[in-house]
């Protein structure tokens, strides 16, 4: 005996036979699409694709699933390249009913709500990412997404003990590199200081001269003759001249 509440039939159609609803108001975030793709790759498509035959095989529910399947199968919606087969729930209703059903299939108001206590108890028994939950979801329901079983904790502790020597060695190498870098920085500062001092000394030495000027060559010659210098000299050592002055005095 047919049940009047089951108004669809499960059939297989080619992807090229069906089309998205142009009015579909549903969107999906990048993170949501990533989670859906993970779920499909992990579990496959378990129901959820509804197509209306009466309006030219329009997708009523399951647009995001079909979109992910297109990506996985590398389907080209324009050329129909890489066409593939998918199982859908086929209905035959007018356009008004189709649009109402599109909203109803995706309306959270008629989709039930989470019992967060019950959900939190399930988390340790599942892979929360395969179930489409995020760290934010788990925080909201008060469940530590880093929760480990006793066995996992034991393995983690064993691994930590095994890695301890490696960790210590890495820390020692890190400290040695930091020390080496500090020594290089100190050396560079010392070199810069030496260069600065040498430059200052050179600048001072460049100023260590005194020029004598005479009005005539005869006056210069008389000066040189007095102190025993060649009248054609261009340079007289200051320290030597100083000793001569002391002797004359």
Automatic annotation (TrEMBL):
Top-level taxon of the source organism: Bacteria
InterPro entries: ParB/Sulfiredoxin_sf, ParB_N
Sequence ranges assigned to domain ParB-like N-terminal in this UniProt record: 11-73
SUPFAM superfamilies reported for this sequence: ParB/Sulfiredoxin
Pfam families, per the entry: ParB_N
N-terminal signal peptide: none
Protein name: ParB N-terminal domain-containing protein
